[in-house]
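Intended use. Records like the one below are meant for learning the mapping from a protein sequence to its folded structure. Do not use them to infer anything beyond what is encoded.
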Amino acid sequence: MVVKIATIYRENLGTAREYLNWLHEELDTKIFRFSETPGKDIEKFDGYLFVSSQYIGQLQLYYFIKNRTDLLKNKKIAIALIGNIPLRISKQFRYFFRLTEEIQSNITFFRLPGRLLDFSFHEIDRKNIMPIIHYFKE
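Structure written out for the chain above:
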């Protein structure tokens, strides 16, 4: 079980914040906006959950993760992609990150349903975060 989890997110439509509130209740995570993440304090966490939508074929948190690979060694890492993204995309992201095999083996990808742009359909549900909760509680 991971004791201290940092959740780092970036969002476009407000969906990430809904999921983060539920994750905080279940896992007592420390939530950081992508733009507010502290430098050295981030090192004290045992696990990291990155939450973002995909935008124009690139994960929005790409550079953040790539530039902090030293912090991610030997940590449990989850990347939750919001939106209609096939799970098979995770292998492409691993290559895209060009991370070492050591770090790649620590990363697990999750897909969270998002909102459609017209906001008429709502798939946001607490049950969607259960696989992430189980991952960090293992």
